[in-house]
Amino acid sequence: MRRDAQAVILLLVGGGMLRLAATGDYLNYVKPYAFWLIVPAGIILVAVAAITGWNAWRAKKEVDDGHGHGEPKVAWLLLAPVVGMLLVAPDALGSYEAERTGTVVGAEENRSTYPELPDDVDPVPITLLDYASRAIFDEGATLEGHRIQLRGFILYDGDEPQLARMVVACCAADARPVKIGFEGEVPANLEPDQWVEVVGEYSTRQGRDEINGELVPYIEVESITSIPTPDNEYQ
Q1: I need a labelling partner for 172 at 20 to 30 A (CA). Which of 24, 90, 185, 199 fits?
Q2: Distance between CA 75 and CA 118 in Å, rounded?
Q3: Is 24 left (phi over 0), alpha (psi -120 to 50) or beta?
Q4: pLDDT over 60 (residue 1)
Q5: pTM for the full model?
Q6: In sequence order, what are the beta bridge partners of 157?
Q7: How far apart are CA 39 and CA 22, in angstroms?
Q8: What digits encode the pLDDT tens for the residues 5-49?
Q9: Relative orientation angle of helices 79-87 and 3-23, to the nearest 10 degrees
Q10: φ, ψ of residue 155 in degrees (nearest 5)
Q11: H helices then E strands: how many in the chain?
Q12: H or E segment and range at residue 198
């Protein structure tokens, strides 16, 4: 590949990484701590692009007119996927992926004890993963007697709406959903990928995920309220 093409690709990739960091869109792909890896990497790529471009310009000046090597212009086609990535950056994973992936809550998540929830907070905001773990492995012992607040997006298991959120260990490539079923009165106009806040109480009801057969806990719904999509959609 021509060195000037290399410089442009490096510049676009490095600049794209810095843009993702500046806008916060990097959270669609990786955990928040990766910010401190993305920014230095983007700066290094931009610096290497500048050096490569300078060297390419100097080399071109030293070549007599008509005596260039005539590198194939097809190498510039390598820019297409890079430009496409910058112009059409995919969104965070949502209901489409969650409906086709088994819940992350499995036997390997089991713990023997869970800390008590605060008595002076009502409702108590906890993550979906924390709720599911307490409901399944602690049989709701630390959930009973508390009103719980959960936030996630809507997906559908057949005709039944569920609350979900993608859990990532490192990046979107390893994302898996945690799913919570609804018991009680549920609004009829819930849409897939709609972000909601659910307030309710622990329910003893449990189901099975059709994808991997793991248990899916339920919550007794008191209210479901639409909320804006959070900056960080993953847990």
Answers
A1: 199
A2: 61
A3: left
A4: no
A5: 0.72
A6: 160
A7: 9
A8: 677 777 777 777 777 777 666 666 666 666 777 778 777 777 777
A9: 20
A10: -135, 170
A11: 5, 6
A12: strand 195-208
Cα distance from N-terminal residue to C-terminal residue, the chain? 41
Query: Residue 173: pLDDT band by 50, 70, 90 thresholds?
Result: low
The beta strand positions in the chain, using DSSP E, are 124-125, 147-157, 160-167, 176-183, 195-208, 215-226
Contact criterion met (CB below 8 Å) for 220 and 188: no
For residue 154, the SS3 value is strand
> Hey, what are 62's tokens?
């030293």
* Amino acid at site 231: D
DSSP three-state, residue 220: strand
Whole-Å CA distances, 25 to 4, 75, 197? 29, 29, 23
Cα–Cα dist 230/152, whole Å: 9
Q: For position 6, what pLDDT does the model report?
A: 72
Helix (H, G, I), strand (E, B) or coil at 79: helix
Q: Quick one: tokens of 117? A: 């929830």
- Measured in degrees and rounded to the nearest 5, phi and psi for residue 123 equal -75, 165
Q: Give the 3-state secondary structure of residue 186.
A: coil
CA atoms within 13 A on the CB side of 12: 17
Tell me which H or E stretch contains 202.
strand 195-208
The pair of three-digit structure tokens given for residue 14, joined into one six-digit string: 């490095």
